Amino acid sequence: MSFREVLNSGKFVVTAEVSPPKGTNVDTLLHHIDLLKDRVDAINVTDHQSSMMRFSSLGGCLFIKEQGGEAILQMTCRDRNLLALQADLLLAYVRGIRNVLCLTGDAVVVGDHKEAAGVFEIDSCQLLQVIRRLESGRDVGGNELDGAVEFCAGAIVTPEAKPIEPQLIKFEKKVKAGAEFFQTQAVYDLDNFRRFRDFARRFPVKILAGIVLLTSARMAKYMTENVPGIFVPQVLIDELAEAPKGEAVKRGVDIAGRMVAALSEDGTCDGVHIMAIGREELVPDILATAGL
After folding, report:
1. CATH fold for domain 3-282
2. Distance from the CA of 2 to the CA of which of 15, 26, 182, 235 falls in 20 to 30 A?
3. What is the pLDDT of residues 72-84, one digit of tens each?
4. Residue 13 · residue 7 · CB < 8 Å
5. Three-class SS string for 89-148?
6. What is the pTM of this model?
């Protein structure tokens, strides 16, 4: 089935993401794709995550297609103007990529090319509109296309944001712009996430809860203190801190697996998006712990 068909099938959907290399050695990327392609419903390829220059998301998606997997192209508005965004979408479609996650993108100054110019000609909501425009057979300039596109397009939302109201406004705007699914920022407070899901149920979209693998108490504390929209409860930080020496990563896998299982069992959302951040080889362990 296509990813859109999976989303609409009623099954608990599982996606994961892989990070392209900083260079031309794609061996690890190919290994992670091969490891995940038959275990998850689709694989995202990050697009210069945290504004760090890497191998392209589109290139990674082509590898996924070549290896028989289902790819989700992450596309940020930070690096391309309207011409380049539309050109890459046309190329992606011709090469069999049918899913796009629309992102505004992190600020350039947080990355490793602080002298680079951020484009940000449009934002993620407007990128969704661009996709729907291309599907109508015309480009943003109103010119007729010789061959249109058709994408399953999604976006992101941050349920842990405080205050939450701006996120809810953006969420509704993205739905109206054509988003079919949302992959959320990392969630650890499931009660809080369920309150967001109660709001989201009003809209005909699928919600995949983001699960970031915690590999140490230090990482969990850092994310809580420094990453907007992420809150790791103290009880989880303590659980990681109390892990025997050398077993913090295993404890993190257990925590992620428990969360996936809880979300799957109570029907809070339509699926999960697992972000192992460089430890993609552990995604199968997380799914096994969750009983999936």
Report:
1. TIM Barrel (3.20.20)
2. 26
3. 999 999 999 999 9
4. yes
5. HHHHHHCCCCEEEEECCCCHHHCCCCCCCCCCCCCHHHHHHHHHHHHCCECCCCCECCCC
6. 0.95
